[in-house]
Amino acid sequence: MTGGATQGSGIRFDQVSVAYGGNIVLDRLDLTVEPGEVMALLGPSGSGKTTALRAVAGFVQPVSGRIRLGDRDVTGLPPHKRGIGMVVQQYALFPHMRVRDNVAFGLKARKVAKAEIPERVAEALELVGMAAYATRYPRELSGGQQQRVAIARALAIRPGVLLLDEPLSALDAQLRSGMLAELARLHRELPDVSILYVTHDQVEALTLADRIAVMDKARLQDCGTPQELYRRPRTEFTASFVGNANLLPVTVAGTTGAVDFAGQALAVPTGEVEGGVTATLCVRPHLVGLGDGPNALTGTLAEVQWRGSTHRLYVDIHGHRIKADLRELRETPALGDKVTVHFAAEDAVLLPAGAGFGGGVHG
Ligand code: ADP
Fold first, then answer.
1. What keywords were assigned to this record (predicted)?
2. pLDDT(311) > 70
3. Among 16, 17, 18, 20, which residue has the most ligand 1 atoms within 8 Å of its CB, making it the best to mutate?
4. pTM of the predicted structure, to 2 decimals
């Protein structure tokens, strides 16, 4: 392997902190990306996602903690010795160079034998479906094509680790979904490459990632498979950031399996949580049904939005607005009508106040 490439190595953040001018912007990140795994770093703007990525690439130095690629501690290594491919939002192609020279750039910088370069360039362009565009200049390509070339350039060095920083956010919606499918295909063709994918877009994270690391305020808040985070979020932040959620303030009742919501008893799984504890109940809008049923709640219809495949109803109940996404709505109730909604006990997740993602857990 050239340039310290690390085929199938995985990434390990070990208590990594980064500060800018005394401000901690990444706080003791503990996370492991397995060889061949796609890990999305998902979180709002400013939560430290790009900083984590740049720390892996070697563009920022942690104030404490170690970064490992496989069994190599790369914390002090310069970027070009890490064997990493990186793609950023703005493509960053060299405008005066043809596509093939852009893709060859990293290989030349890493002193790959001259005779080997054309073959490596062709291989990388083939991977992203851009073989026919080798002699074009970036200005002769669409945004999506430029991003493919940027990905080819990152792949040409045959990296063990691919870092993608909001790679689709400069593309329009239609191109974005095409590129998402492309990235999924690329991942299938490169099963040994670990991918760390920074995004604030939950659809990208849910679609592409094997696991999602949820970031907020410089810290890892949660980590799990998309299904785990969606079905069993551990924190309110995860519940609201990964998918849509009704979050109801409740108090756990003395008896197991019951909570109090504004004076009304609801039957939900309470697990080990003790009576008297205040908590948040998370129910996904598509799991709320219209009409009578278990955990029926009656209120006033405040708003109806038609969303193509579903109707979103907003119902005011005990001073809280509850969202219900309904596929079939034979008769739309009128605004101001009394309506009853319900949800099954097993579709509710209880989030005790202050519940968080325990420290020291390696992703
Ligand atoms: P995200 O990728 O989640 O949007 P970033 O990792 O880019 O977040 O930024 C985290 C925090 O660090 C933000 O508050 C940002 O303003 C700050 N920050 C990022 N880069 C720098 C820098 N070069 N100098 C000073 N502050 C920075």
1. ATP-binding, Nucleotide-binding, Transport
2. yes
3. 20
4. 0.87
What does the pLDDT read at residue 344? 97
Confidence of residue 170 (pLDDT cuts 50, 70, 90): confident
Could you write out the three-class secondary structure of the chain? Answer: CCCCCCCCCCEEEEEEEEEECCEEEEEEEEEEECCCCEEEEECCCCCCHHHHHHHHHCCCCCCEEEEEECCEECCCCCHHHCCEEEECCCCCCCCCCCHHHHHHHHHHHCCCCHHHHHHHHHHHHHHCCCHHHCCCCHHHCCHHHHHHHHHHHHHHCCCCEEEEECCCCCCCHHHHHHHHHHHHHHHHHCCCCEEEEEECCHHHHHHHCCEEEEEECCEEEEEECHHHHHHCCCCHHHHHHCCCCEEEEEEECCCCCEEEECCEEEECCCCCCCCCCEEEEEECHHHCEECCCCCCEEEEEEEEEECCCCEEEEEEECCEEEEEEECCCCCCCCCCCEEEEECCHHHEEEEECCCCCCCCCCC
Residue labelled with tokens 């990186």: 86
Dihedrals phi, psi of 57, to nearest 5 degrees: -70, -25
Identify the residue whose tokens are 């690391």: 213
Per-residue pLDDT of 106-149, as tens digits, reads: 899 888 899 999 999 999 999 899 999 999 999 999 888 999 99
Average pLDDT over residues 205-215: 95
Whole-number Å distance, alpha carbon 109 to ligand 1 midpoint, is: 28
> Who wins on pLDDT, 355 or 294?
294
Strand partners, 229: none
Residue 72 has pLDDT above 70, yes or no: yes
What lines the ligand 1 site, CB under 6 Å? Answer: 20, 25, 43, 45-51
Work out which ligand 1 atom sits closest to the CA atom of 41.
3
Cα(179) to ligand 1 centroid in Å equals 26
Domains and CATH numbers, the chain: 11-231 (3.40.50.300), 245-352 (2.40.50.140)
| Inter-residue contact 179 to 171 (CB < 8 Å) | yes
Give residue 358's pLDDT band: very low, low, confident or very high (50, 70, 90).
low
